[in-house]
Design a protein that fits this description.
The protein has 180 residues and is mostly helical. The protein is 72% helix and 6% strand. β1 and β2 (155-159) form a beta hairpin. The radius of gyration is 22 Å and the shape is flat.
Length: 180
């Protein structure tokens, strides 16, 4: 049984190969979902603009369009999670939390607060607060990497730019501020 903890165990190697293959299938399927979502948003906008009144969008139409855009962006974030998992074989908490916060933001944007209960509104607020605090804590306590978005929305991880001596200088200046 102890051989299962050995990364060179043939069964573990075989199972990891199967998992990596299924993750690749998920990446392909997510790409299909993203492409179909973009086509759906285009179709939605086209129908909203050509239906009478011509070239006129109501607030509900705009909110529905925002919701569709956000759903595509969430799908892109999930694709990025999958591709990073394929590269590094690790799930990064910061990226997953950013995706979850985007999903919550989508819910806040599209929800009609006149049609939900008071408790439901408080629950959404509690989730937003909890996720914000959690994300802040993850960012604060994972200072060996920083999380950036490229222009195209792809996440990149990079080592901190500051040399170790600059880190010490920064921590010294913080301790001096606390003392005064």
């Amino acid at each position: 049984m102890d051989d299962l903890y050995n990364p060179n165990e043939p069964l573990i190697i075989y199972l990891r190969t199967i998992i990596r293959f299924t993750v690749r299938i998920l990446a392909v399927l997510m790409t299909v979902v993203i492409c179909l979502g973009v086509l759906d948003v285009g179709r939605l906008l086209y129908h909203k603009l050509v239906d009478p009144p011509f070239l006129f969008l109501t607030i509900n139409d705009i909110l529905a369009t925002f919701g569709a855009f956000m759903a595509i962006l969430i799908a892109i974030e999930i694709f990025v999670n999958i591709s990073i998992y394929l590269r590094e074989d690790v799930i990064h908490v910061k990226i997953v939390m950013a995706t979850a916060m985007m999903a919550i933001a989508r819910k806040v944007i599209i929800v009609d607060f006149t049609e939900i209960s008071y408790e439901y509104g408080l629950a959404i607020a509690a989730i937003v607060l909890a996720m914000s605090i959690g994300y802040w804590l993850v960012v604060k306590y994972t200072n060996d990497h920083s999380y950036d978005h490229d222009i195209v929305g792809v996440h990149t991880w990079r080592k901190r730019v500051l040399p170790p001596s600059a880190d010490r200088d920064k921590s010294k200046s913080r301790s001096k501020k606390k003392q005064s």
